[in-house]
Amino acid sequence: MKVGFIGLGIMGKPMSKNLLKAGYELVVGNRSSQAVDELVGLGASKGDTPAQVASQCDVVITMLPNSPQVREVCLGTNGIIEGAKEGLTVIDMSSIDPVESKAIGAELAKKGISMMDAPVSGGEPKAIDGTLSVMAGGSRTDFDKFYDLLMSMAGSVVYVGELGSGNVAKLANQVIVAVNIAAVSEAMTLAVKNGADPELVYNAIRGGLAGSTVLDAKAPMMMEHNFKPGFRIELHIKDLANALNAAHATDTSLPLTASVMEMMQAIKNDGCGKEDHSALVKYYEKISDVSVKKEK
Length: 296
Hints:
The protein has 296 residues and is of the alpha/beta class. Helices cover 54% and strands 14% of the residues. Helix 1 (12-21) packs parallel to helix 7 (123-129), helix 9 packs across helix 12 (233-249) and helix 9 packs parallel to helix 14 (281-288). The radius of gyration is 21 Å and the shape is elongated. The relative contact order is 0.10.
């Protein structure tokens, strides 16, 4: 099986490397040449355009910033649709609007190209070690066919349903994470503002019903003021915008998501957009005139 990979950014480059390690013949494409050259040095071939990549492959994976970029790579000038042979499958592993996934898939289908949406959770560290969580939408036949391919980059690959369902699952994930981070920020601020040691409060509650993966991952970062990005504020804003767009398209109300979106936007406006999403605590620190940072 010859695999194309378009989008060699923070996530795409290590994912591509894992495909090479798994023994797949790989053709890569990217707007900047540095990442392409690195992958070529490891054994990949190069395609100068998405059409060139598609013309050489049985399946093309895309890992791109957002819906407009996926549409351009799939359907634009020199896009996948112009180079693909009938029967090609596109697996979009970007996190985009599920409404747009369905629309792009419908256009590709007119040319005999199938599409899956398979966004991931886990960030750069799990992309590097090949333990991403993949939420896949599309036909069950395609899912079964490409399951092993996806598992070469992942720790788990779960079938969610028809095309668009993968991105629905990813957006649901991002809503839960965002609201959890806001709740942890609010709780840590409450503790400090009332004279309690936030670390002792954290240790007291983490074993009960309030305990969560988000609490364990983000509360220590907040207390250390360590906002080195595992997942950036600006990227979470993008995901919440897609969640709200999908909600509006289906007359769904997401009041908590909208509130956290505005908090994150305020933090971005304060110059924190490239920091980890745990930096949301800065919003609460600012409005409450307090710091949750532990004293050394």
